Amino acid sequence: MNPSAHIEFETLVDIAEARATLEALQAAMQHLSTCSACADTLERLKETILLMRSDMADDIPPDVLVSALDIFQPERQTTLPRFVAVLTFDSRNTTRALGMRSFHTASRQMLFSAQDTDVDLRIAVQNEECILTGQVIRQDCPGGRITVAGTAGSAEAALNELCEFTLPALPLGTYSLIVRLHDIEIEIPELELKAWV
């Protein structure tokens, strides 16, 4: 080892983890006795490794980890196949069929289907704003995201472990909703968010 050169980082890690060969350790100890920079780096490595080994924290849930990593990824063009969902149930039409027994409500449930996936939407209107909640119904959806965008605004939410979501309040208007999963995208192109009376 050149006495004026610092110890390579990988060698310091080997020393901190007690994996260095006897020959490498003897050469490094001689250098460490005269180089405070390398000695400080070795001490910080030992502290970090000790802290990592004593960490008893729970693992991050997979959907939270995927969402966090997505924040630091540059926007990328999607190559996922996109399917337009078809409306298969609308509670607004059901209440009309009930006739005299129907009642007026500011909420609505809609079910959309595409491929092997259903999207259950619950729309509640409060103070000229819509609260949109729901659930993606399929075999798996870890790391999935819901995005709505329209002239009145946009919002985004991650799916939880039960494939449920809640979007922030949105102004009344017409939106496009996209469900982005690991293998496909599902689009509801003209979702009208308004009060129903």
Summarize this structure briefly.
The protein is of the alpha+beta class and 197 residues long. It contains five helices and eleven strands. The N and C termini lie far apart (83 Å).
Feature tags:
35% strand, alpha+beta, 197 residues
What does this structure look like?
The longest helix has 19 residues, at 36-54. With 197 residues, the protein is an alpha+beta fold. The strands form 2 sheets. Strands 2, 3, 4, 5, 8 and 9 form a 6-stranded antiparallel β-sheet that branches. Strands 1-11-10-6-7 form a 5-stranded mixed β-sheet. It is 28% helix and 35% strand. Helix 1 (9-16) crosses helix 3 (36-54). Residues 97-103 have low confidence and may be disordered. A hairpin with a 4-residue loop joins strand 10 and strand 11. It is built from 5 helices and 11 strands. The chain has helices at 9-16, 22-32, 36-54, 62-71, 91-97; strands spanning 82-84, 86-90, 107-114, 117-126, 129-137, 145-150, 153-158, 164-166, 170-171, 173-180, 185-193. The chain is elongated, with a radius of gyration of 28 Å.
